[in-house]
Specification:
Elements: E1 2-3, E2 6-7, E3 11-13, E4 19-22, E5 33-36, H1 39-47, H2 54-71, H3 75-86, H4 93-106, H5 111-153, E6 160-164, H6 180-188, E7 193-198, H7 205-217, E8 221-224, H8 229-234, E9 240-243, E10 247-249, E11 254-257, H9 260-269, E12 274-277, E13 283-284, H10 290-293, H11 302-305, E14 306-310, E15 316-320, E16 333-336, E17 343-346, E18 349-351, H12 355-358
Parallel strand pairs: 6-7, 6-9, 7-8, 9-12, 10-13, 12-17
Antiparallel strand pairs: 1-2, 3-4, 4-5, 10-11, 11-16, 14-15, 17-18
The structure holds 5-S-methyl-1-O-phosphono-5-thio-D-ribulose.
Length: 362
C-alpha cells in the first residue's frame, strides 16, 4: 500500500542482509522505518509491538530465524533462536506457524546452506502473505458489494457502513491486510462504503493505525470510542462488521483484540453480520475450545494507566489517565464463540465458523 504516494510493505530485506520494518509505535504522528540486524532485534520488534498483527508477527519471526542463521547456523543455534522467537508473544498462532515452518525447512539442510535458504524461505512466506491477503480481499469484497446492492434494492442509501476493531489492515500483515483487504478491494472497485473505526484501547490500534492507513488510501472513515458500537448497531448505522483474528480454533472460535467479543454480542443482538478476515495459517487445528484453550496475553499495566498523544507544541508525550496507585488489568485479547460469527473470509473462500464447514480449509 502507499504511504504519501510511495508503495511500501511493512517488512522487507535489504541488499546488505538486514531487515527493515515500519515502527508502528510511532504512527500516526511519525513514519519511521527501523533496521533489524539480528534475531534479538526481531524478537524485540515483536515483543515491544514495533510490528504487530498476527500475520506480520509470523513473517517477522521467520525473518528473525533467517537473521539468526546468518550469524550461527548450527542445530543448537536454530533451536535456540526458534525458542526465543516463540516466546515473544503468546496469542497469535502465526508466530508459531512462521517459526515452525522455518524450523522444518532448515533442519534437514546442511549448516553451510542454511543461511541462504532461510533468507529465501522467509521472503517466500512474506510473498505468500501478500497473495493470501489479496485473495481474502477479493472474496470479502463480494460480500460488501452484495450488501451495497441489497441496500439499493431496498431503496436505502447504497453506502455500506462497516465496523472494524483494532487494526487488521496492511500494517498487521505484509500488505493489504485481512479484515481491511475486502474494504480496500471493494473501495477500489467503486463500491461506496464508510468504516467505523473502534479506537481499541489500550494501544489504540484503531485510532492510530487503522484510521491512518484508511486515510492514506482515501477510504471514508470515522473513529469511535470502543463502547459506541452497540449504540450504532441499534440505530441501523452498521451494515456489517469485519474484524481480523490472532487465532481461530478448529471449531471456529475466534480470538481477537480485547473487545471483539462485546462487538459480536451486540452484532448478534441487532442482526448485523459479523465476519472475520483471516489467512488459513491463523487457524490452530490443535484447539477446539477457544475460551478454555487459547492463551491470552496480559501486558503491562502502564498501557492502561497511561496514554500517548500529540501535544499542541508538536511533541508526542505520554500522560497518566488514572489516579496514582490504582491498579490496572491489561488483557490483550478475548474469544468470540463460533455461534456469533457469520462467516470466515479466507483466501480460499467464505466458510461458516464450524468444524464441518472448515474441513475444506485443512
Ligand atoms: O496486539 P496486536 O496489535 O498484535 O493485535 C492484533 C489484533 O488483534 C488485530 O485485531 C488483528 O485483527 C489480528 S491480526 C490481523
Amino acid at each position: 500500500m502507499k504511504v504519501n504516494g510511495k508503495p511500501y510493505r511493512t517488512i522487507w530485506s535489504t541488499a546488505d542482509g538486514a531487515v527493515e520494518i515500519i515502527d508502528q509505535t510511532k504512527l500516526p504522528h511519525e513514519f519511521v522505518t527501523m533496521r533489524l540486524e539480528n534475531m534479538r532485534d526481531a524478537e524485540r520488534a515483536i515483543r515491544d509491538m514495533w510490528v504487530r498483527g498476527a500475520p506480520l508477527i509470523g513473517v517477522t519471526a521467520a525473518y528473525g530465524v533467517a537473521l539468526s542463521m546468518k550469524h550461527h547456523a548450527s542445530d543448537a543455534a536454530l533451536e535456540a533462536s526458534c525458542g526465543v522467537l516463540l516466546a515473544a508473544r503468546p496469542t497469535a498462532v502465526n508466530l508459531r506457524w512462521g517459526v515452525e515452518r522455518m524450523r522444518a525447512f532448515l533442519a534437514p539442510l546442511p549448516e553451510s546452506e542454511r543461511a541462504g535458504a532461510a533468507w529465501l524461505e522467509a521472503a517466500r512466506i512474506a510473498d505468500e502473505d501478500v497473495e493470501i491477503n489479496a485473495s481474502i480481499g477479493r472474496y470479502g469484497a463480494e460480500l460488501i458489494r452484495a450488501m451495497h446492492e441489497s441496500k439499493q434494492r431496498e431503496g436505502r442509501s447504497g453506502v455500506v457502513n462497516i465496523l472494524t476493531h483494532c487494526n487488521a489492515g496492511w500494517l498487521a500483515t505484509v500488505d493489504w491486510g485481512t479484515a481491511l483487504a475486502p474494504i480496500y478491494a471493494a473501495f477500489d472497485a467503486g463500491v461506496p462504503l464508510h468504516v467505523w473505526v473502534d479506537e481499541t484501547r489500550p494501544r489504540n490500534q484503531g485510532a492510530s493505525l487503522t484510521a491512518w492507513e484508511l486515510g492514506q488510501h482515501g477510504v471514508p472513515h470515522t473513529v469511535i470510542v470502543d463502547n459506541a458500537g452497540g449504540h450504532l448497531m441499534q440505530h441501523g448505522l452498521v451494515d456489517m462488521a469485519i474484524v481480523g483474528t490472532d487465532r481461530v480454533t478448529a471449531t471456529g472460535d475466534v480470538c481477537n483484540k480485547i473487545g471483539t467479543y462485546l462487538k459480536a454480542l451486540a452484532a448478534h443482538d441487532n442482526g448485523v453480520p459479523f465476519y472475520i478476515g483471516l489467512p488459513t495459517p491463523t487457524i490452530d487445528w490443535t484447539l477446539n475450545d477457544g475460551v478454555k484453550e487459547i492463551p491470552i496475553e496480559e501486558r503491562a499495566q502502564e498501557e492502561v494507566t497511561h496514554i500517548a498523544g500529540l501535544c499542541d507544541d508538536g511533541q508526542v508525550r505520554t500522560v497518566q489517565v488514572t489516579p496514582t496507585g490504582s491498579r490496572a488489568a491489561n488483557y490483550g485479547f478475548d474469544v468470540t464463540p463460533a455461534r456469533l460469527v457469520t462467516g470466515l473470509i479466507t483466501e480460499r473462500g467464505v466458510v461458516a465458523a464450524n468444524a464441518q464447514a472448515m474441513e475444506c480449509l485443512k
